[in-house]
Design a protein that fits this description.
By secondary structure, this protein is an alpha+beta fold. The chain is built from 30 helices and 11 strands. A 5-stranded mixed β-sheet has the order 6-5-7-9-8, with helices on both faces. The chain is globular, with a radius of gyration of 27 Å. The N and C termini lie far apart (86 Å).
């Protein structure tokens, strides 16, 4: 029997190795065709940005040590990290174009595939781990059922426009600035100010979108869907590592959505309030979701919500889960583990800098503490700790120009900062959020801490869960974003709690009932969020629509005129609006001269108050605009245009048009019923160099003439 099993495993391994060699050869051929003939470029780009380089790197480093499902997930997670590690130096430091950076990335991906092909898929088999580690996580009926359920819960991802909620317009502004050649991108709400947020996420979208031939919104949709799938696969592998006699895929789903298990109960028991809102679907966003948070920060009310928004945090969750697998798999040799963790550390820093300490600090410490023994000498403990932290140090050093510039920009722009929550008010607020997020799981976490299951993997996850919860408790991040540490902690917390529940009850029926109840609450919580998104259609505004790869405004073509017929480096003025409400960058694809910052992020920038007053005066009827326009032109140092939109201005729209018609330095370039575009000074002539004008008027010598 043992011999037969060994022969079967050898046959399976041989078949998989042959398949990997065929895949590597096919990918190299695809890249060669794309580079030489220009054909199949979108397919090559899609595979390169989202899967192939990461898969072949993981295959080369960890084949024989991780099951195939983990390698597939690592391909989805590592490829954006490899793309980022390539794009940042090539575009930012070397000054190459995005097209050149894609060629370099293609060559790197083909090189990784060739190396995996040369090595036969991995390190020599004499380094392979034992059967208990390399055994595949079973793709049984529970896996397919879980995958189908996950797809149903993530149905709102099918609508790319869902991302226009929660900072979507703001993030699109940064993407379009990069596409227009600004690297690093400017501050999206204050022209000339330093960028004060992580932007590798936007660089990834800007490089992938034209290469594949889709819009940045669709690229982000694919990235979020791939991240959600990778998290599910990796959590299943982790749950199998820990054991507990429960289906690993059921535990994976539970860990994904175990935040705020009381939420569904609160929604269902308040028919007149939360449930009525949910059923009506008439609100611009599902406020019931936040109101279902019993304590603390309502943004931690659901684990699915982050995968439905335009942000880098969904990918950061996948990076985090891959890092957990690396530190919780002791069979991986030091070199492969270190290289993979270094790439994941780069992704954690560049895609979501605020939560990077969880992967860079907590995970290595957990690995070192879980493997420590009482009789280990101090030197051995120190060596283990240093070895665990080396990948983090490498990632920090390699990305230091990037994160240092962001931190400097933040210090210049923000009126508040990060720190420790030592004041009682902040500490109690974080504690309330922690309790609200995991209230029903606290007994099981306590049981897991007092009576832990033996095993290195389970110990690592317990330490990671404790350390990440501690970060969320004692830290304060800009915008009170420390709640995201609790979203990170949910994954190890969910696995530890499920394992503790399985071991706490000896009667099989009671054990199954408790686990089924927990999984049911988790799924219902995610389902209420998903149905709320679909019913409310809160992302669909009557003035948004897609035109190919661009976003358009149904109310006016002024923004289409701006993006099609003005210089790429142009700056546009509008009546001051919130940074999340402006359409200049997201639809017009040009830089904004000034936007209001509702969170106070830009208040400390030099001249912020003066610029706010300047723009308010410019859009007030009866103002002497000549000195204002001169100052704006001097400050901008690029062609300047003015955008008027009837929807924003209301009755002021006609009054401002009449006022602007009397300004000798302005020219009217475009007008329809919903909006208008005017040029300031030399910008009137610059627009003629960028294609034929849409019918409008140009002012010369105090007279208006029609432009055909």
């Amino acid at each position: 029997m043992i011999a037969g099993r060994a022969a079967g495993q050898a046959g399976t391994a041989g078949a998989r190795a042959a398949g990997d060699r065929i895949a590597a050869a096919a990918y190299v051929a695809l890249v060669a065709i794309a580079l030489v003939t220009g054909r199949l470029g979108p397919l090559a780009a899609a595979l390169t940005f989202f899967f192939a380089p990461g898969y072949f790197l993981a295959l080369r480093l960890a084949a024989g040590r991780l099951p195939g499902v983990a390698l597939l997930a690592l391909g989805l997670v590592l490829s954006p990290a490899i793309a980022t590690a390539t794009l940042l130096p090539v575009v930012s430091l070397a000054g190459a174009s995005l097209a050149t950076a894609r060629v370099v990335l293609f060559a790197l991906g083909a090189g990784l595939a060739l190396e995996a092909l040369r090595a036969g898929g991995g390190f020599p088999r004499r380094h392979a781990a034992d059967e208990s580690v390399t055994a595949a996580t079973p793709l049984d009926r529970s896996f397919w059922a879980g995958l189908a359920l996950l797809a149903a819960l993530a149905l709102p991802l099918a609508a790319a426009d869902v991302q226009l909620s929660f900072h979507g317009l703001y993030h699109l502004s940064i993407v379009h600035a990069i596409l227009n050649g600004a690297v690093p991108p400017p501050n999206p709400g204050y022209h000339g100010g330093p960028i004060d947020t992580y932007w590798a996420f936007h660089l990834f979208l800007a490089a992938a979108a034209p290469g594949i031939g889709i819009s940045p919104l669709v690229v982000s949709t694919v990235l979020r869907a791939a991240s959600l799938l990778a998290v599910f696969l990796l959590l299943g592998v982790l749950a199998r590592r820990v054991g507990g006699g429960v289906s690993p895929w059921a535990v994976a789903l539970f860990a994904l959505f175990c935040i705020n298990l009381l939420g569904p109960l609160l929604v269902l028991t308040d028919f007149e309030g939360r449930l009525a809102e949910w059923l009506a679907g008439g609100y611009p966003q599902p406020h019931w979701l936040g109101s279902a948070m019993p304590l603390g920060d309502a943004r931690a009310a659901n684990g699915l919500a982050k995968f439905l928004n335009f942000n880098a945090f969904s990918y950061a969750l996948a990076v985090w889960t891959a890092g957990l697998l690396m530190v919780a798999t002791p069979a991986l040799a030091a070199v492969p583990r270190g290289l993979l963790l270094a790439f994941l550390g780069i992704a954690a820093i560049t895609f979501h800098l605020p939560t990077a300490p969880a992967l860079l600090v907590v995970a290595p410490l957990a690995f070192a503490l879980a493997g420590a023994r009482r009789n280990d000498p101090a030197r051995a403990r120190l060596v283990r700790l240093l070895a665990a932290g080396v990948p983090s140090l490498v990632a920090l050093l390699l990305t230091s120009p990037y994160w240092y510039a962001i931190l400097v920009g933040f210090q210049e722009a923000a009126s508040g900062g990060a720190g420790f929550a030592w004041p009682p008010r902040l500490l109690l607020g974080n504690l309330a959020t922690l309790l609200g997020a995991f209230l029903l799981l606290l007994p099981f976490l306590a049981h897991g801490a007092v009576r832990p299951r033996p095993g290195t993997e389970a110990a690592v996850l317990r330490w990671v869960a404790a350390g990440t919860l501690l970060l969320g408790l004692v830290l304060v991040l800009p915008g009170a974003n420390q709640y995201k540490f609790f979203l990170l902690a949910a994954f190890p917390v969910g696995i530890v709690a499920a394992d503790a529940a399985a071991s706490a009850f000896r009667r099989p029926r009671l054990r199954r009932a408790i686990l089924a109840l927990g999984l049911g609450l988790a799924v219902v919580s995610a389902a209420t969020a998903s149905v709320g998104y679909l019913r409310s259609r809160w992302w669909v505004r009557p003035f948004y629509q897609h035109e190919g790869t661009a976003l358009a405004n149904r109310g006016t073509d002024a923004y289409a005129f701006l993006r099609r017929q003005t210089p790429r480096e142009a700056v546009a003025l509008e009546r001051p609006v919130a940074v999340d409400a402006s359409l200049i960058g997201a639809v017009g694809e040009r830089q904004s001269f000034f936007r209001l910052s509702p969170w106070g992020y830009y208040d400390a920038l030099p001249g912020y108050a003066g610029r706010a007053a300047l723009l308010s005066a410019l859009f007030t009827p009866g103002t002497d605009r000549a000195p204002i326009l001169r100052q704006v032109q001097e400050d901008a140092a690029v062609p300047v245009y003015i955008v008027l939109e009837r929807r924003h201005l209301g009755p002021l729209f006609e009054a401002l048009l009449d006022d602007f018609a009397r300004e000798p330095t302005l020219c009217s370039l475009f007008r329809d019923d919903g909006g208008a575009v005017l040029g300031v000074g030399a910008a009137c002539s610059r627009v003629r160099r960028h294609g034929p004008l849409t019918a409008g008027t140009v002012k010369t010598g105090g007279r208006l003439r029609t432009v055909p």
